[in-house]
Each structure stands twice: as C-alpha cells, then as structure tokens.
Amino acid sequence: MIVLRLFFLCCIVSLPVCLFAQPATVNPKPFVIPALQSWQGSQGSFVLGNKTRLVANTAQQKQLLPVANLFARDLAATTQFKPVVSPLTPKAGDIYMQLLTNDTTLGAEGYTISIDEFITIKANTTKGIVWGTRTLLQILEQDITHTHIPKGRIKDVPQYAVRGFVLDAGRKFFPLQFLRDYVKLMSYYKMNDFHIHLNDNGFKDFFGNNWDSTYAAFRLESSTYPGLTAKDGSYTKKEFKALQEEARLYGVNIIPEIDVPAHSLAFTRLFPEIGSKQYGMDHLDLENPKTYEVIDNVFKEYLQGPDPVFSGETVHIGTDEYAKKEAEQFRKFTDHYIRLVESYGKKVRLWGALTHAAGSTPVKSEGVTMNAWYNGYADPKEMIAQGYDLISTPDGWLYIVPAAGYYYDYLNLKKLYREWTPNMIGNQTFDPKHPQVKGGAFAVWNDHPGNGITAKDVHHRAFPAMQVLAHKMWAGADTVLKYDQFHQQADRIGEGPLLNVMGRYRLKDALLLDYDFTKASTQQTVNKLVKNKATINKNGLNLTGGTSYIQTPFTGIGYDYTVSFTIKADAGNKAGTTIFSSDDAVVKLMQQQTGKLGFSREGYDYYFNYTVQPGVWTKIVITGNHKGTSLYVNGQLVEKLEGAVKTFPNIDKKNAKVQTLFFPLQYIGAKTNAFKGSIQKLQVFNKILSPQEITGL
Fold first, then answer.
1. Which residue range(s) make up the domain with 271?
2. Which residues form the Glycoside hydrolase family 20 catalytic domain (predicted)?
C-alpha cells in the first residue's frame, strides 16, 4: 500500500504566542521575519475566503495592478483561494491597496496594514506595498488553515535602506532559475539588494601553480568579446535583463558586479597582454593603455544604449585586493571607472580598498557607495570622512566560504542575532542612524572552484543566514525574542510561495514516501504514472532501460534524509544507467566505467566502493546530510563519502572535495538511460535513521 505522508507542504502550526501578558481578547503580535516594528492588536480575525478580492485604488491602477496580480498568484500558491483583482470599492473580506502621497514617517519602503472587516495596505511606493503583502503571506503560512489573519494595526519601517546578499557567481555558476528563486526568497524576507559577482577566478595554488590552468569565468554573454563568455555556464543579455525586471516587481534591486582590476583572469586569458607580469595574471596591467581600452569596452557593452543590459540604477565596479605597491595607478583606475559608469547615469558601488591603497591621486567619493568588508583595506571612519556611503559587509562576521576551512562554512547565527547590527563594521561601531551607513550585506564566496559544492549546498548555508540577517538589517537591535525562540519560530516559515529549494517537507512523522510495488494498492495508485515499457506486477516495478520510468510527487529531498530501496538489476546494464533522476542529480547503477553504484550532480561524478550484483535482490540504503553521503547494503555500512581532501605537491595546502547528494526523486528510472531491472520497495524518510533503524528496515 502506498502511504503518502505529506499532510501539508506548508507549516502545520498555529500563530505564535506573544511573550508579554495581554488581555485574552487582544491579539498578540504575529511572528514574521523581519519582526514588525509596531503592532496594535484588536479582537478577532480577518478570514480569507472565496469572495476575497484584491482591490487596487481606482486612480492608481497602473502602479498597483502588477503588485496586486503578483499577490494574487502568491495567495493562490499559499492558500486554496484565487482572489480576483478588482478596481472597485473594498468591502468586508477584501484586501485593499493604496499609495500615499507622501507619508514622511514611512519613507521609501515602510508600510501600514489595517486588519479589520477588510484589510488595507498603504505605502508611499509599490515596494512598500509589496513588503506589506509579504507580511500577510508569512502570517497566512503559519496559520493551520492558511485563512486567518489576526485583526490589528501594523506600521513597519526598515531601519536600514540596504539589506543585501552577495553571491559569487564568477567562481561557481548558478543556473538562472536559482537566481530567480533567490529574488523571490529575498523578497519574502524583505531583503532588497541582490549583488551578483559576475566574474572571478580560483587560486593558482590549487591549479598546479599555473595561471593557464587556473579556473576563471565571466558569466555574461558578450558581443564585443565573444570569447570572454564562460563556456561552462553564462547568462544571455536577454535573460539578465529579464531577471532585473522580475526582481523590480518583487522589490529587489539586482546589483551587477564586474570585478577589476584584481580577480581579472577571465579578461587576461582573452588578452594576455593586459595581464600583470609582476603581480600575476589575475591582476590587470595598469600601465598598459590596452587595459583601459578592453575594460572600457566591457563596461560600455552593458551600459550604453536606450535599453542597456544593466537596467538598474546601480553598478558595482569591484576594485578590491590589488597590489599595494601600485596604489597610485590603482586609484587612477578606480576613479576612471567611477566616472565612466556614472557617465551612463548609474550610481557606483565598489569594494573598500582606499586605506590599503593610500595615495595622493584623487578618487571621487560623492555619490559613491562602498562595501566596507575589511577595515585594513578601507578604514570605515576614514572612508566616511572622505565622503563615501558604506554598506557594512564585515568579513569576520558575514563571509561564507563553503568548505574552505577559513572564514565561515556556516555563519555563527546565534552570535549574529545577539550581537551584530549593520552599524557595526569590523571593530568600529557607528550611530545606528548614521546617514552614511546605508545598511548591510552578507556574502557567499566560492573561492575553490571544483570542490564539489553545489547550488543546493550554497543554499543550505545561505537560507538560515537570510532569515537571521533579514531581521537584523530591517529591525536593527530589536531582538525581543531570545535566539532559541526566534530559531524555533523561524523554522515554521519557509522560502516563499512555490519555493522549496531546501527540499524539506513538513510531516506528521518522518516517512515521506512508502511504496511497495508488489502490492495491489500501490500498483493501482501509480500504474497510470508508469511510462515507456515500464511495468508493475507482483515482482515490483520493472524498468526496461532507455526511457522507462515512473514519476513521484517529489522532485527530490534535501538534507537530512534516508532513502531505502530493494533492487534487482538485470545482467547487461551498461555504464551510466540510472536508478533515480531529477533535474538536480542522478543516482547511477554503474557510475561511468567504474561499474560501481554512484551519483552525479552539477558536473561532479562520485561512486561508492560497491557494485550491485545482477540477478540478486539487494537492500540499498543511502543517507545524506550537508557533510556527505553514506551507503548501506543489506543493513551494513559500506562507505561514508565525507571529508575527502585533495592535496597538492610542493605546497602546504589542501582543498576539500564535497560529496553531498540532494537525493533525486522526480523519476524512478529516467527519461534517458534508465537501468534494466526491478525495484520492490521504496521508502523515503525526512531524517537520517540510526544504524539500528536501518538494519531493521
């Protein structure tokens, strides 16, 4: 019998209990992330229903209809209702949106919500309206019926204008869909600044001390220099423009970064003559006029014309970690690109470097914003005195470098929640309302290309940090809840409508799937899903290779999990034949030419030291967490793929080789290259079972 134990993909919880004693009839402050800055509770609940309409102010249809339509789609994904968008007068049960003329207390992103017989969201801008809808969506997600919103009044204004996330897509490619998902995730948590680092390179130490073999990539389509575009993953101009347009609808600014004059191996690989012979080929030669010609052309390609590729108001020009001896030339270079980008009507951001690169050559500061990441490179007080606005991006607090052994693999969230606010930059603390401290940003740097880290692994690190830092960047020092309470309640809020990048499911118990293909009940349920010569009978699910498969209700399951299946492979299976598959990964009966059980994801291929014997029923159990993947055969641990390290000759360095697996469940078999054989029983658990439990399966 099939048992599908997914009761709700959303959270099965009731609204949280307020920490402070209030009259029983007054609604306590709802828990959302970031925390509401002002709440006045009243009595009862607004109830979303079939007759609920989203009503946009009649005179403001042009501005509000896109937001109302977005909210309608998100409500349909979060609840069972599909509200109609209407320009009529609101009535009981409706949600009404209105732009204000100029409420100086709300600023550009603040909003108010009045929750009574109908709900009214007001803000000065559409971005403020979007943030109001995110608050309502989070409240509905936590309600057991996804229909009740406690009555009361909300006034919510961010303390900081910039609430950001920096993603290094230069040293690790992220599919466009991942970026789109992150726009929606960030919007759900009112994070408004998505900084995408578009080019970079690895360290030559990990590539044989040879610049020619060191990994480097530039992620945008280039018509000016077609050879510049990375061959292992890039974004077309059309895709990147569409990403920015979608982000604006969600209230998120895309900040594209072209990083020069260090981190520039992608450019010097195409034009070796502009690489520094003194400091290394990841440094541009700042004495060579050709350098300016090439980099000018790169920036111009994405900035010029009536419909530029970089369509937002801000562009990041990099400028970090260049050789200190060339301070004057570096300062000249920096000033040149500030003025070049500004000449196209854009605002400029850069990395802090001007304490490290002290000198007499002037560098424009007016209207320029600096990511203050390390005080030794750019002393914050000194930069403020020079006129720069700052985004607090302190490496010692906010840098994730996956599996590198330095900075953070996972941020210290408890410490951040308790102690950090954006006005803290390294060891310097400013007035929380300092006009030149614009906000904060945390970053993921993929310093080690080829180390096995996947987009799923990056997300596993970034998502919990997003929850904590969204709160700290909006609410500042407001931590009324203790961290453990915050963490417990944050776990009840997901990634946003239709998002589940973590691959987690809210269950009554740990068993997610229970298929016994030898039983009539399972056969009746899934027979219609069997494709292309696959069959189900008393022997189980039988796959005939090629395109035979069955589709499950889930695309995959994230960490932590246990997957158990009983398999009998036919003789004659060839290399690469697949047992489980999805867009993220495949589990292979025989990994390449090894003949061993293995898996592949994002261009990485792994195998266990085990060969599935044909013609024999075998119990296989695979468990996975964020550290690695383990194999059990007939109840016995065969191998744990975890902690692998690549060492290098002649240098005292090591590089991790991460062997994780976000387990693919979309297909048993595959649309191409399915294995030949049978599976009798499949069980998927939303946790790692103990060795004793595995033995008992």
1. 162-477
2. 160-476
